[in-house]
Amino acid sequence: MNNLSLIIFTLFIQTSVGIFATTLFNIWINKKEMLDIPLIILSTCLGLIILGLISAMAHLGNPRNAPHAVSNITHSWLSREIVTINLFSVSLVLLWIVTFADFQKGLFLIETVSLILGIVTILTMSRVYRLKIVPVWNSIATPMDFFGTALLTGSLASAVLNGVISDMVYEPSLTLFIFSCLGLCLKIAAIFLTLSLQHRSKNLFWYTSLRNKNKAHLFTYVFRAGLYITGVALFAAPNMGLTNQASICLLISFCVILIIEIWNRFCFYNSFARLGL
Amino acid sequence: MIKTPAFFIDMQICTGCKTCMVACKDKNDLDSGLRWRRVYEFSGGDWVKADDGTFTQDVFAYYISMGCNHCQDPACVEACPSCAMHRNESGIVLIDSKKCVGCRYCEWACPYSAPQFDYANGIMTKCDFCQSQIQEGREPCCVEACPTHALLFGDYDELIALHGKKAIIAPLPPPEITCPNLVIAPPKQAKSTENTNGLIQNPEEVKDE
């Protein structure tokens, strides 16, 4: 199974939703008069979705038949995922046009609809993996992990983009910091819930290789959680006034979180172990 | 025409010769990695301590031949985003290669490893119950090839009436997940699905790891 394309696809889409949602809340909470999201942020969100979809196409064995992939929307969560991602991207394109044209009427409505579609996108993405026969994936840990990625990576990427907009000077934002902390909590809870599920389900598999896969190695989980905490702590330092080097801390924090997210997602796909034959 | 086509496996007389597996590969001209039918070697056991302090062994080993069970509630059909995987009017689960996107989601969803990915063509493939042979009044090639008649083919309800609905055994998944059209006569040493000291001993023969 080509997991790399799925890792890129899920991370990019979730980060895109995260950037959009955290930026939007940041604007709603802090700048009540100016509702429009900067075009550079909307363009980044759209760029990430396009790259994610290209990566998803690379995963397909027969991409020429891709238009058929929405046919089973009544039963298949994969079809629903494709539809919601496309609806989310259409709403972002609409928002981009409205923002570019400086058309304030209806902006709040489009932003709200886009936010809802973003949340639904992550819900459907997590539902794709909640297969009855894959005990480790079929738990609340999967949506927690995906929403955690959106909030954590999204808030950090949003902070980086805000820094880029403000001539490479990052102004600490309490709202983004709170979102990153929420994301961190979800990620850590998901990591230890997965550890517990792997431990409990290790005797369910009849293949030696799958049993080995489900031997939960506590160290790797603790190490992953530790790296997440380090990443958020680096982001916390400027937000709590502990350092003047806000931009450097933010960049290091973003890189640490990005690396650990890729590793964490790789571990997620590697934990696939199915009941039965 | 059979109302609900199903396989029956008499595991008491299956010798694990894998002729069914070879016949399937031969008839369908499958590449080396594709195994629409597989024969699993399941064994295990341990030392059991008796009340008087002595030990006895409970070693067991048996074979199970497994293809697609053309389930009544097929997880692959539900999972398939493109409706390529479908059940026809005879209850046979088939793949429409013109619609298959090769996402391999059906492979994740099926607890019997029935859908197999064809790397050469980028699409999923699976057992089609040898439809062409059935239409000629013959049996599927795996059933025809079985030297001990351990593998039989017939109507699900008739097979149930004949052999009874036997308990599902290890290493099979719980049947309520997909309601497979599969009837089994388990061997005497069969273990329940709760058994934890058995293992599939030939993963390299049956699994595309």
Q: Uncertain segments of chain A of ≥5 residues (pLDDT<50)?
A: none
- Straight-line distance between termini of chain B: 38 Å
Query: In the CATH hierarchy, what is the class of chain B?
Result: Alpha Beta
Largest β sheet strand count, sense and barrel closure of chain A? none
Count of helix runs of chain A? 9
The SSE string of chain B, one letter per element, is EHEEEEHEEHEEHHEHEEH
What percent strand of chain A? under 5%
What is the end-to-end distance of chain A? 17 Å
Give the helix level of chain B as a range of percent: 10-25%
Number of strands of chain B: 12
Describe what you observe in this structure.
Chain A is mainly alpha-helical. Chain A folds into two domains: 128 residues; 144 residues. In chain A, 73% of the residues lie in helices and 0% in strands. The radius of gyration of chain B is 18 Å and the shape is globular. The longest helix of chain B has 10 residues. A three-stranded mixed β-sheet of chain B has the order 10-1-11. The N and C termini of chain B lie far apart (38 Å). Chain B has one domain: Alpha-Beta Plaits (2-Layer Sandwich), CATH 3.30.70.20. At the A-B interface, helix 3 and helix 7 of A face strand 2, helix 2, helix 3 and strand 12 of B.
Layout of SSEs?
The complex is a heterodimer of chains A (277) and B (209).
Chain A: H1 3-30, H2 39-59, H3 77-100, H4 107-128, H5 141-165, H6 174-201, H7 208-213, H8 218-239, H9 246-270
Chain B: E1 5-10, H1 19-28, E2 38-44, E3 47-49, E4 55-57, E5 60-66, H2 75-79, E6 85-87, E7 93-95, H3 105-109, E8 116-118, E9 123-125, H4 131-135, H5 141-145, E10 151-155, H6 156-163, E11 182-185, E12 198-200, H7 203-206
Parallel strand pairs in B: 1-11
Antiparallel strand pairs in B: 1-10, 2-5, 2-12, 3-4, 6-7, 8-9
